[in-house]
Each structure stands twice: as structure tokens, then as C-alpha cells.
């Protein structure tokens, strides 16, 4: 920190004026964090060993006066609910979730009323009168029960306040406002009990009415002194919000009529370099901050970093910032905790709540889990290695389980261990048992982790923070047995978990300091980097989370957004008051979720520029690469060529050839590397699955007729078996997937309709005199291709859906569930056949014709598509169109030209000098 810091000045006063009686000296600071820095300042000032004075925060001091323990917000909510139930008539009692929605706001208002020592009966009756006036014009007979309840709510507010206040006092606990009010009530007694004590208040700004009264009383009694940290620039300017509160105290406190005002600094007007840097988005700010720190280290070396502070206007920037800091930062102190929202143990517990609350909401009796909820837990890093998760996840994926009953889940796993039982045992016996189960679960997870592994040690810290929170919840629930719904427990858990931060280890006095805005109070640094200098972030925007209207707050002297803005203004200007190098970073994006206008504080610095301030304004934009994406190019190594020869010997399928045409890289991944898509549960039937079901149904229905001519009776028999067979194939292909509702039921009906329409078409053909003989169904054919363009013979191999003889002509049919039209199987020129993917169906059906040609016994061959989405067009044969002549029969000349083009494609695939190049 700077040589002339405020805490250095306080330390000098303590050593010079109070060193004879340090044990009886109390130094009251705005926060606990400043204590460490003040002790360090005292060490530097002291010439010999001294006993430290008592250094405490203002909140701890007020609690000491009041003699009441502070209660945390969730415990307070529980206590208030207990009071609410005791004074509310049974028909009007609300469930805890509904109660909590308005109770939190009301408790904030109670807190403000008490902190500012207002008469609660007057304020709350005032609110009731306002609501009465709003409803003035409504006739008595027009008042609905809902309106009556609304008016009754405002009438009950004084009773709620009084009952809660008495209830908490009886337990010797309280919220902040209650403690402050009781402290002022107990002030005279406390003052008499510390007649031998000396108190120093240091570094305050915005005081509430209770704090003002306590401090003024001790000042006037000669028991205390107060030292402000205000610059004359802010104090003398009657419009400057940074001095708003201190100006009021200087003018209005009786103490200052006869005593000097201490201290007024003159640091702000001194020489400063202020760098204003705008950059798009939040991550840009983190990257720039990292670069600034790197520059500071390069210029001033490591020992200068303890004079540098990074103040995050938005705490979510912490993790990106840590990734961007240079590795040369040796010492680091972070005053903020790591948010529990991203804590892996918290993520697991949140998923566990989701799994069980969803199961309870579906059907408590059968307790049905959704597969995604189960897999989310099984694949969690704290669970997966210890519950044989891979095997169970594989069973769920392979069998297409969408919803799994509790009983079925236990049937799928052999010998479930204790961890598995803790995760999946039914939550049927109330909230306390659930919390105890989660607590045991966390202990089990902790025992699975090792202290020898650095990552696992960090995981243990995360688990422990959640363990403490769950135990705290358990205590609340044990003391309040009138709240016992799992949904309520989950809602409370989500609120409590925000408080369960994991602290970072660090040395507060050495190295780079990273802090939030409030942690910077009373501290001074030479170099300050402040991020998120946008409206709505720094300062925070207007937020009126209160039942007390703005004008009433103004009239009663309660703080409004004007005062809250003034507090932010003071924090900002105090941060830069003694700094020499200041970097203000803001997001240049004015629209979007994470955006806002440039902060008014930056504009104020520019407009009210001091003569000794040097202000620079820069915009940083990311350097965009000239090429957004470089396509993959994979050369053909010796092992790749070996694999290609294997494929050539085993057989190139038509789909493998079209895959290469579509994108050579896809061919490489699928055929060379054998990379397949990960097997997942198919929640909704995919088009390829639907196609498989239709293919398999037709195969089963027509199999008895292979080698026979079809009759009308045969097709009518098929129509009778249709529903049963489609259902059977659905179960074989889709396994345990749900087909009785939703999209899958529609897909089931579509499959039936497609097969039904196909059979009707077949029946009409037979009735019109077509002689149809089934030759093959879903049969694999192969044929070796020898061609001068190929380095060695290549086997062409594929599965043909159906081959029939119709009126003396061989028909090779490929079923397509998608829409295919005549143009998709019509060719005008052989040039470029294998260069465009639009020819994929032509390549496919001609490959089938080539494979079957020798078995056709010189009968004419047609090959084509039967599209289920275009059945009205019937069989769509391959057509070669030359001038105005169209030919559907596959002649030798057609096959010769086709094989020339395929050989050209295969020679490219097998050419070791031609790499696989990605198409984009």
C-alpha cells in the first residue's frame, strides 16, 4: 500500500496517544478485513514489542453493546414462520414457500425501520393507511374475499413486527436492525460500564441512525474519538455524492460545534494516471487485467504487487481472471469466496434434489426416475468411479430406458454399494431423514477422496463446505417441525447454498490483492484496477425490494437508491483517492444480458478532471484471425493405406462411397478410425430408427413369399398382421423406450400408416394384373470391381432392401422413409457423378445393379427408390436422360460409364498422395 495510507495514520495516532493503555483501547473499523492491515501498520510504527489494542468491526461492537447474538437470514425466516403460524388464523395460514416470498421483503423493511430507530407502529400503520386510500372507491359489497385478505395483511403488519421482536428477544438472538435498536436502548448502561475504556472509530462513511446515536453519545461523553477518511475535494463540493454523508455529520453533529473535524485529506487532487479501457464483453476485461498485471511485473518486478489491487465490480469475473493472470504472479490473496453455485459437491446435491423431487411429483408409489436425472448423477465425477457407473449407464443407453422405476433401477445393478444406496434410496420419510442421508452421503464421498492428491484435496474442501450447510439446515429443521415438504426443503437449500462459499487460502499482506468493492473499505493501494465499470454493475442499479414506497422512505428518513448510489460513489472515490495508477475497465457492449452504459463515475472523472490527473481513453478489440477455421487435412500414412486395403478386401459399401463424397473427413473418422456416435438413450424416435422399424416390418411380412409370386390374399394377410408386427418391431428396435404417448406414439402411428399405404399400393398393382415375384429381402450382395484406373481389385458390397421380378423385369428397390422425387434419380451426364452429394441415390442404386447383374440371367434390370413420403409416385427407377430419350433399363453401357466414374472416385480414395481434406 501507499506510504501515506489511512491505516498508517491511524497506527501513528494509536502509538503516539494511546500506547500507555493499549489493553483498554478499542479500535472500531467498518469491516473485519481491515484489522489485519491495521495490525501490520502498528507493527511498522512500534519501536518495541507492544500488546495489540482490541480491533473489532462495527457490527461486533454493536452486538457487544446489545448483548444479543446475530441470526442468519434463513434461521430468521424459520423463526418468523413460527411466529406467523402462532398468530395467523388457520384458514389464512400459508405454506412456507408462499410465506417466504413476501416474508423476506418484510424482514428487510423491519430491519431498516429498526436500524433507523423509527417508530414501527407508526410506519406500518402508515403503510396500511396508504393501501386503504388506494381502495377508497370500492363499495363494501364489491370487496372480494381476495381483496379483504389483502387489506387484512396490511393490518397485521404491526402484530407481525411486535410478535417477532418479542420472540427473538426472548431467545437472545436478532437480525441486524433489532440488535442496533437494543444497543441504543442499552447505550447508557454500556457507556457507564466502560468508563476506563478508550474507543477509536476509524474510516466510516454512511452511518445509520443507530450508529450515529451510539457514536455521538460516546463522543460527547469523551469516551471516543472518530477519524474520517474524506478528501477535501468531495467534502467542499456540496453536489459530490462521495462526501454526502460526511458533510451531513460535519454540519449536524453537536460534537463538531466545539471539536475539530478529523481528518480531511488532500490526496485526490495529487498527480494520478487514470487509464480508461473499454473492451467488448466480460472475458475481454479479464484478459486485459491479466495483461496489465504482466506489464506491472515486467516493469517493477514481483515486490511491487503488494501495492496492487484488482477490484471486481462483478464477482463472477473471478474465475476467468484467475485463468488470465500470468504464471509469474508468485503471491496472491483473494478476499472473495468461490461461489457454491459451481462447487462440484453442490452440483451433485442439486441434481440429487432434482432426481427425487421429480420422482415424487410423478408418482410417489412407483417412484419413477427420468433417465437423464439418473445419468447426471451416475456420471458425476464424485460418484462415477465408486458406483460402477459405466456398466449401469451402458445398460440404460443400450436398452433405451427413458423412465426407470426405483425397483427396475435396483434390478439393473448387481450388488449396489453403500454410496449407490445413499444416492437412490427413496425420500419418503420427511426432510430430516433426507438431510441426514445427504450428510452421510457427503461423509462417504469425503472418505473416498485422498489427501495425497492435490485435486482431491480441493474436492474435499468443496464437499466440506456443503456438509456444513446441510448440517445447518438439519439444525433448522430439527427446531421447526412444522415445515416438512421436500419441495420446501429444496427451495430453502437453493437459498442457503449461496452462503456456503469456499474460501481461498492466501497471505493477506503479501502479493496481488483481488477483492470485491466492499472489501476495499479503509484500504489504500498505489495501483488499482477496477473492472465492470458499467451502469447497473458499478454503481449497482436502482432496486426497490421493499413494501415501503419511495416517497414514504424520503419522508421518514430511510435510505433510498440516492443514498445507496452515494455509498457506491464513496467506495469508488476512496479506492482511487490515494492511488497513483488507476485502470478503469468497462464493457463497450451497450446491449445484451451482460451489458450496460459506461459508468457515470468515468464520465464524472472526465468532466470534473483535476489539473494533476492524466486521463487516457482506449478501446481494446480482440484481434480476429483472417481465417476463421482451417479445414482439416490428414495425409495418408502407411497405417491408413493398410486400413484402406482392408476395406477394399472386405468391401466398400455404397454408403461409404457417398460418405466420402459428402466429406472425406467423415469417411476418415468412420471407416478408418472406427469412430462412432456415442450410444445414448433415444428419447424421441429418430428418423433412422423409424426407417429401421419400417424395413424390419416389411422384411418379416414378406419373408414367407421369397421365391413366390404374390397374390391378393398374401397382401390381405399382411394387412391383418400389420399392427402386431409394427408393435413387435418397435419393441425390438426401440427396446424399453416409451411408445404409448407423446411424439413416439405419433411415430408409431406414422410407421403403421407408411407400411399400410405400401401394402395398399402393392395390392392395387396385383389387382391391375402385375405379376410380382419376391427374389430377395434385406440381403447382402457383393462383386469385385477390376478396373485399369484402380491399383488393385476392390470389392463392392452392400445390403439390398428388396429385389423382385415384376412382369419379367428385375427390380432392385431401396426403401427411403424420407422424401425422394424423380429428379433425385435422373441423370443427364456422367461427368462429375461422384463430385456432388446430390447424386448419392443414383450411386447407391447403380451399385446394387452392378452387384446383382450376373445373377439376373440377362433379364432386363431396373434399380430405383421407393419413397414412403412420396408413395403416390410409386417406384422411382434410375433414369438416364439423353437428349429427349429416357431409359430406365440398366444396359451394359450405363454400367460401364458408372464404373468408370466409381473407379475414378476409388482411385482418389486409394491414392496415398491425396490426403483426406475436410469440406466446409
TL;DR?
The chain is α/β, with parallel strands linked by helices and 920 residues long. Helix content is 48%, strand content 14%. It is elongated and about 120 Å long.
What does this structure look like?
The chain is elongated and about 120 Å long. With 920 residues, the protein is an alpha/beta fold. Strands 11-14-10-15-16-9-17 form a 7-stranded parallel beta sheet. The mean pLDDT is 89.
- Round the Cα radius of gyration to an integer and report it: 39 Å
Q: Write out the strand line-up for the largest beta sheet, numbering strands in chain order.
A: 11-14-10-15-16-9-17
Mean pLDDT: 89
Amino- and carboxy-terminal Cα gap:
55 Å
Shape: elongated
Low-confidence stretches: none
Number of helices: 33
Question: For the report, how would you describe the main beta sheet?
Answer: 7 strands, parallel
Helix and strand content put the structural class at: alpha/beta
Say what oligomer this is.
single chain
Strand content: 5-15%
Count all strands and give the number: 27
Question: Which range best describes the helical content: under 10%, 10-25%, 25-40%, 40-55%, 55-70% or over 70%?
Answer: 40-55%
